[in-house]
Every structure is written in structure tokens, then in C-alpha cells.
Design brief:
This protein has nine helices and eight strands. It is of the alpha/beta class. It has two domains: 195 residues, Metal-dependent hydrolases (TIM Barrel); 63 residues, DNA polymerase, domain 1 (Orthogonal Bundle), CATH 1.10.150.650. A five-stranded mixed beta sheet has the order 4-5-6-7-8. Helix 7 packs parallel to helix 8.
């Protein structure tokens, strides 16, 4: 069974609509999947209906931003009630925070002789067919910076301006890690720490994060994220077992031009892992 539990659509910072994304996932042979847009579940109904048309098993998903010890981390949620009032209120609050962050990024870039960034990022975002009421994300700013000639490519934009510890890394609008986990659990969902290796922590600090995540009620970790190095996957699998986590995997797909995050193309989970989809929420493969 081919499983991909991490992908993004135009509802956040992807370039394919939820329906287009589901069609592409079906063509890739995916059997079980989740759409996990950033701090947003606006695309889930469209994704659910499209997945059903293509005969794929689907479960509700989201990727929440959270704060942990001064760092931004991401928490994936699955199998939650999409109508849960507490979760919807929390997502509304984060959406407001994302608008504030976008405005701050625009102001900061203008101070660095890059005026018009917010308007440019909005233009990039809306050209993909995104909801015009959704705030632009850092990839939209990065693409505008490339288009405006301020950087060579998206990678340079993140390396110099938008990545961790840089001008665009604004965290104060996110809930704490325990709050994000509880928002998901309160809606009946399961919380999974996204791409633990990507935060650049030492192994000692990563263990502290995993310990705190477990104490907050986290249930699993994303052991395999895209075409991650097998040795990294092996380390995460070992740590996941150490803390009693279930193991998840996902491509982290955003757009077709990134072959290292192609739909369904993940480094395999080690045989020692207990897969996330053994959780009861995945039993029927569909959650509304």
C-alpha cells in the first residue's frame, strides 16, 4: 500500500488545487493520503470528494505551526472532526496571525530595499487560484523575490531572507506546542511531529523536543519526509521507537518542479516502525 500523508494545495502554499492534487496522487498510485495545508482546512472537502472519485482512501489532515523554545515547529494532525468548534477558532486565530506575519515580512523587506513585497506575494499566490482571503506564505514571497530579480531562486530567498533565523522567520503568532497538540486532540485527531530532522537541532535537542511532544500528547513523528537520506530516516525510526511514537511518512509535495518531494516518493519506513495508519482513526481510511 502506497501512503502519502503530507501534501499541500493552493489552500495554503501549494500550486495545485485540491482536486488537481488528488488527480495527480491517483496517477502516482497512492492508496491512502491526507491533504495537510498550513494552518488551514479550507481544501479538505474538495480533496475528500476528489479522492473518493479516484478510489483513494482519505483522512482529514492539517499542518499546524507551533512555538517550541523559540523555534517554529510543525505539527501534523489527522482524523479530526472538520467541524470541531475549538479547532476552527484556533485556525481562525492563526490565519489572522499569518496576515500579520505577511505584513511584517513585507515591511521588513521594504526596509531592505525590496518594496512592494506583500503586494507581489499576493499576486503570486492569487495567480495559482488560491483563495484571495488567504494570507500569502513565505514561498509566495520567495517566488516574488525571484520574479523581481532580488534573488536567483527560491532557495537563495530562504537562505538569505526567509528561512529559520532570518528576517522572515516570525514566530510570535503561533500557539505553543502543547496548545497545538491539544487543539488537535480536542477535535478527535492524532498529532504527529512533522519532519523532525528539518529543524537542524542537535540529537540532544531533538530528543528534548520529542520528549516534550510526547508529554503534550503527541502520538507519532514523520520518520520519512520526501526523499530523505536513509541514515536520517533510520535515526528518526530509532528515536520514534525510543519514545513509543507511531511512524508516518509523506512527500511534503508543494509543486511538480521539485522532484525530491514528488507525490508518493518517500524513503521507505524501516521494518521496525509501527506505522501511523495502524491507529484506529485510519481503520476506514475516510474521516469527515
Amino acid at each position: 500500500m502506497l501512503v502519502d500523508l503530507h501534501m499541500h494545495s493552493t489552500a495554503s502554499d501549494g500550486v495545485l488545487t485540491p482536486a488537481e492534487l488528488m488527480a495527480r496522487a491517483a496517477a502516482a498510485g497512492i492508496d491512502l493520503l491526507a491533504l495537510t495545508d498550513h494552518d488551514c482546512i479550507d481544501g479538505l472537502v474538495e480533496a475528500r470528494d476528489a479522492a473518493a472519485r479516484h478510489g483513494m482512501r482519505w483522512i482529514s489532515g492539517v499542518e499546524l505551526s507551533a512555538q517550541w523554545q523559540g523555534h517554529t515547529v510543525h505539527v501534523l494532525g489527522y482524523g479530526f472532526d472538520m467541524q470541531a468548534a475549538g479547532l476552527l477558532e484556533a485556525l481562525d486565530a492563526v490565519r489572522d496571525g499569518r496576515w500579520q506575519r505577511a505584513e511584517q515580512i513585507g515591511d521588513r523587506l521594504a526596509a531592505k530595499r525590496m518594496p512592494g513585497a506583500l503586494e507581489g506575494a499576493l499576486g503570486i499566490q492569487q495567480a495559482t487560484g488560491s483563495d484571495p482571503h488567504s494570507p500569502p506564505a513565505r514561498p509566495h514571497f520567495a517566488d516574488w523575490m525571484v520574479q523581481a530579480g532580488h534573488v536567483r531562486d527560491r532557495a537563495e530567498a530562504f537562505r538569505k531572507w526567509l528561512g529559520a533565523g532570518k528576517l522572515g522567520d516570525i514566530k510570535q503568532h503561533w500557539p505553543t506546542l502543547p496548545d497545538a497538540v491539544q487543539q488537535l486532540r480536542g477535535a478527535g485527531g492524532v498529532a504527529v511531529l512533522a519532519h523532525p530532522w528539518h529543524y537542524g537541532f542537535t540529537r540532544a535537542r531533538l530528543r528534548r523536543l520529542l520528549r516534550d511532544f510526547a508529554e503534550a500528547g503527541g502520538r507519532g513523528i514523520e520518520v520519512s519526509n520526501g526523499k530523505q537520506a536513509p541514515e536520517q530516516v533510520a535515526v528518526l525510526a530509532h528515536m520514534g521507537t525510543e519514545f513509543g511514537f507511531l511512524a508516518s511518512c509523506g512527500s511534503d509535495f508543494h509543486h511538480p518542479d521539485a522532484p525530491w518531494m514528488a507525490l508518493g516518493a518517500m524513503t521507505p519506513l524501516p521494518a521496525t516502525c509501527v506505522p501511523l495508519w495502524s491507529d484506529a482513526r485510519f481503520a476506514e481510511g475516510v474521516s469527515a
